[in-house]
Amino acid sequence: MLDGVLQPLIANATSSIVILSLTLLLAYLCYALFSHPLSHIPGPLHRRLSSIPLLVSNYRGTESSQAASLHAKYGPIVLLGPNDVHINDGGAIAPIYVEKGGFRKAPYYHSTDIDGLQTIFSTTDPEYRAVRAKAVAPIFATSKIQSDGARILHDCADDFVAALKKAKNGVHEIDLIDLARRYSLDAMSGYVFGKRYGAFTDYTGTETLSATPYVNFIQAFTRFFLVPNWILGYLLAFLGSVYPNQEFETSTEKVTSYVQSLVDEAKQGGGKDTFQKRLLDVGISEAETMVQCEDAIFAGTDAPGTTLGLLVWNLVKQPEYIRGLRHELTDGPMGNMSLLRATVQEGNRTSLANPVRLPRIVPPQGWTYTPSAGGKKSYHVPAGTAVGISAYSLHLNETTFPSPHEFNPRRWVENGQSIATREMNRDLFAFGAGSRQCIAQNLAMEEMFVVIRRLAESEVLTGAQVVCEEVRLGEWFNTRLRDGCNLKIRWTV
Ligand SMILES: *[C@@H]1O[C@H](CO)[C@@H](O)[C@H](O)[C@H]1NC(C)=O
Ligand SMILES: *[C@@H]1O[C@H](CO)[C@@H](O)[C@H](O)[C@H]1NC(C)=O
Ligand SMILES: *[C@@H]1O[C@H](CO)[C@@H](O)[C@H](O)[C@H]1NC(C)=O
């Protein structure tokens, strides 16, 4: 009896729900395809409808190679998500990042806040950054690094070479990523904080740097770079339960107590002219100063470690460059471009330490992108869109850098003269560009020059061979070697 009444009702309700859902879906499709403000930007349908493909590529570290495939199909500007655009044209660096201070960083960067506090790197607010950056900027001037930092960088370079020698004569093998991280961390901390972390203290050549689990943990977070900050809170709790590891706890304690000692000394008037003292002096709180130091430790260890590790690995694979560098050291550079500079520059290009799109928000007046490779078509990119360029697409562009995967310093120099094209110089994007360019880029460069020169003077790499012939890099904000490859080198006896 009841069945007779209910069933048609239920059937009716079900069909209404189905019809309603279909209508909504259709309406959404029409909106996405025809009236969404980005409907005129080329890209595949599934990217237009949802951010999930972009989030998945972020997690898997395939964001930039996927963007490259989209560019191959759709041209110089493509849609990565409903509100996300990628451009593979070096001509767009200036308007997005440089002119008039560049566009603001996208809120995505807040996923790299530490303990809920914004860092010099993570903040999207130019004024917040300006106060802190202005306070510490004098430390990062090349002239100051070359005068006040010379002794520290040379000491660290000596330790770097000594560690290689010890390995060569001892266990005959060493991990270049670990070694390069030690050098980067000690050089940075010794100069910037006025007190070396102690990365080479008690180092026997086989164990892992004590700061590594800490640094790796932060690096692992770049898998969630594009995830909103409030969700990250849950992720952190989740990761904490997946990674409940003693190594990480010990490492964090070590880093934190080192940073605490820096801040304590600065509060008592020590550490004149250091990063931490300069921040405290302009009224930055003690808690935030600690966070800024922790961020500097991550930034000063992970990306430069990868870059230096890969550079040395490439030199081991192609020892003719080490010999060339050694000749140059005795004969002096011939012209306006040394092989040393070319080598570091090529390391800069090939390491792809930060390979992904550096997203910026189009300002309220919108922005019109005109591809620099000609063609009459322009694209209006509306206010609020997250737009960006990646080092991956620029550094691996075959037109600008023929055989882009090849490590070839000679593409920059011939007979001591620079042979770089305008595009080659323009499209180096290792540190970003413009007002939000990496604040410590001059230090990172000087660290490279000092250690590579010292390496060339020594004969320590003679007879060394790489253990893995090929390495594959994941495309996270900070890159990491994919599982199954390493940067170990070995000396045959
Ligand atoms: C490395 O790349 C940056 C651009 O991100 C550039 O400013 C810097 O001069 C380069 N350094 C060298 C030695 O080529
Ligand atoms: C390489 O860069 C040029 C502009 O410098 C651009 O026209 C071209 O589309 C880029 N190619 C790829 C594959 O990204
Ligand atoms: C270096 O010298 C070459 C040839 O003399 C010249 O074409 C080039 O512009 C110079 N580059 C710089 C950066 O001075």
Assigned CATH superfamily of the largest domain: Cytochrome P450
Tell me the span between the first and last alpha carbons: 92 Å
Number of helices: 19
By CATH, the architecture of the largest domain is named: Orthogonal Bundle
Query: Could you describe the largest sheet, including whether it forms a barrel?
Result: 5 strands, mixed
CATH class of the largest domain, please?
Mainly Alpha
Broad structural category: alpha+beta
In this entry the ligands are:
2-acetamido-2-deoxy-beta-D-glucopyranose
Tell me the strand order in the biggest sheet: 1-2-8-5-3
Using only C-alpha atoms, the radius of gyration works out to 25 Å
Helix content: 40-55%
Give the domain tally: 2
Shape: globular
Strand content: 5-15%
Low-confidence stretches: none
Global mean pLDDT: 92
Task: Report the CATH topology name of the largest domain.
Answer: Cytochrome p450
> What's the total number of strands?
14
